[in-house]
Structures are given as structure tokens and as C-alpha cells.
Amino acid sequence: MSKSWRILLTLVAVFALVVSACGNDDDDSPAADPSPTAEATAAEPEEPAATPPAGEPVQIEEGTPAPVPEEAPMATEAPSDPNIVEVGGGAVIDIGECPEEWDNNAGVTDTEIRFGSSLPRSGALAGFGTIADGIGLYFDAAGLIDGRNVVMVARDDGYVPARTVTNVEEMIDADNLLGFAGILGSPNNLAVRDVLNENCIPQLLNLTGLPQWGDPENYPWTTGALMSYETESLIWCSHVAEEMGDGATVAILSLDNDAGEAWRVAFNECADDLGIDVVEEVQHDPQADSVGAEVTTLAASGADVLLVASSGAFCPQAVATVASIEAWTPMVLVANGCQSIALFWVPIGPLANGIRMVNTQKDVSDSTLADDEWVQFVRSTLEDQGVDPEAASHALGYVFGEILHSVLMDAAGMEGGINRTNLMRAMWQMDFESRGALGNALRRMDGANDSYMVEAGRIEELVVDADGARYVPISDVISFEGETGTFGQ
What we know:
By secondary structure, this protein is of the alpha/beta class. The protein contains twelve helices and 19 strands.
């Protein structure tokens, strides 16, 4: 049975349970290495003594002379390789494969811990361009980490992979970085993954749900920050089957890149299993000015559901186009990267009413979360820093700043303190409740045993009315914590 099918069965069971209640439900510590026990023999026993099972103590009757142990044999096992760093589940980092000039302490000075990032500060996904700024602002508020300031160095790539490569290569040479954090885009992160792993430079918190980020055995220096597109698609499939029944029809708009393909393939797989009919699919150029024509093509299918597997400005464009087509009123599912109400949905207002998505983190512009402790902290702190909490994506940067903070503190407590290898050990073995996650869900990994950090989300519907815009939960938080495994398994 495939991993996807096992996850699907779990999800279907979860939905079945909550429907009956008129709603939807949502260390690596090495094994003890026993010391070898020297064999013991009694001097000329009358009968051979029974050999106890391995690992159990030898029982000696009272009055029996203590056995004289033989000289312990010389150890035959080779000493452990100091170049091998375990990150969990059998996955390791071999620093013997790092370049000769590699420095484990790069980017950590007496006063700073330095990270780089490359994001789109221009183009259709420019709304995400201030995430790195938000991470920096989070650490300004959090204070020193191990006596040092955390510094973010970010460059614009316009969501163009070639520009991401140029940015990363230049920053490696010029900016003295511990690693990279929060590079946005599947093709962008894929474009630099090999060079960062070959040079043993951390590539943390990729802002994309591409399943390939959960591959510590082959790419131990790379981790993701979002729910895997496979998991998100499985939740979508089950929701469609639950709401529409057998034979539901779906049209898919997806990015014409690695992210869009991952969404598309995963949804088609689970759709087949649940009797859902994907009747039309259109991919769009990530550098396009608009997706209106693509949505119009999909409307001709008359599908019951439109799946918007895209990002950035393309999400509200697609939704606004659907709203303009009177003859087509599908259920609209949107990728969770387009969650921000202030950034994506306020601009089109009531046209966004009724869209649904699998949300994984708290949106500070959601009025239903106004009393949430995390939301209040982010909003008040950003305002004190002179930043509008609903402008751009600074608040989203706080979510990832919280995660990086936890990882850095764990690394600081390891022998050697904060350095590149300890940073990766801490990342692959993270385990904490995230205040920025819906339901304060866990952010937990265990190397190759559990390679995905975000495994919980909630189906929510956007409601836009006279009271503003807000998300209304359609399910409880649905968690697959520890169940999604590792890439390819």
C-alpha cells in the first residue's frame, strides 16, 4: 500500500468521524550502546552452567565462588567517524565530503548570526518579498540569540530561478553567511539546492511545499517550511468527495513549474482513488500578467470545483475572473500560500466570498483571531516597529522567525554551539509547539523518519460581508503528525 493511500485512508476516517458530529475534524537520541560483557567461567564446574539469555545478568547461587573473568578481548569495531553527523532516522551529514575551504563556523561572529535569502520583491509574487524583513524584525524584538544579533541579508529575484542562482552565488562569496533561510519558490530552491548541498551550506525553511524538501538522506542541508503539496492535495480530494460525492468534476489551474506540477500530479492521484473526475487542466506562465484567459477556458468545462494551484497575485486574479462568469459557480479551492486576507483578498472584496483553503498558520488580518495571543503579539510589536501588520508579508516573516528562533536555541545548547552542522541537527530534530500555527500545532521532524515540518491544517472558508473578511473553520485542525514520512517513501 502506498504512502499516499495510507495517508488518504487516515484522512477519510477523520472526515467520517467528524461528519457524524455535524462538523469536520480536523530525538534523535541514539539507542543505548550496551558495553560488551566479559565472558565468565567457573573453575572446573561439575556440570556446564546454563547460558542466560543475552543481556540478562548471570545469576550466582549464594556460597558459590565468584567466577574469574577471562581477559576481555580487544575491541574489533572501528572508532566512530568524527566526520559523520547524525540528523535522525539514519540520515547523516558527512562533513568529509565538504570542500577543503569549508568553515563550520561561517556566518557566526562575536556579535552576529548571518543568514541570506532570495525572494521576489518584484513581479506577480512581490507580496511575499518582505518575509525576510519580517524575520529580521522578529529577531529585533526577540533580542540576542546566544549573545548575538540575527541578521537577514535579502535580495530580489523576481521569482526567476536564474536570478536566484546569481543572488545565492554572490552572497556566498560576499556576505559571510551561516546559511540561507526563507528562499521562496519551488524552481528557485531547486536551482540552488545542489550548489548549497555540495558546499555544505544550510538551506532552511524553503517557502514552498515541494515534497522534495523532505529528503535528508540525499539532501541533508535542505529543509522545507510549508505543508507538502501532496498532503494538501489529499485534504482537498477528501473535502471534494465529502462535499460533492462520487463523480464530482474538477478543473485545475496550476503554475507551469515544479510547484504546479506537484500539486497537479498529487491531486490527480487521489482524485482517481475517490471517484473524482478531473475534466480540465490548464497551466499558466509564472511570469504572466494575468490568468483571466486560462480561467475562462476552464469555465467552459462546467466543473463543480475549481482548484487554484497557484500563488501570489494569480490567486485573486483567478477568483475575480470566476466571479465575473455568471454561468459558472464552482466551489473554489485555493492553495494555502494565498492565505493572507489583507494581502490577497481585501483588494477584491466580496468577489472572494466563499473560497476555501487548507490553512496552516494564523493570519493576523483575520478578525476571528483578534484575541489570539500570537496575533496580538505580532500586531503590537510590528506597530511598535513602525510597520503596518497588514502590509506586505512582514507578519508572515514572524511565523518563520519563531521557527528559526527555536532551532537556533537548540543549536546553541549543543556541543560546539551554533554552527552549520548543529544548525542542521537542530532543524531535522525540531520539536516545539508553534504559537504561529493554527491550533498551536507541533512543528516537529525526526530526520528520515519524519521529514516534513508542517503536517497539520484546517479547511477554512473566507466570509466577506459588512463586518469585513474573515475565515470560518469548516473542519477542526487535521493532523498527520509523524505520518508523512520522507520523500519517495
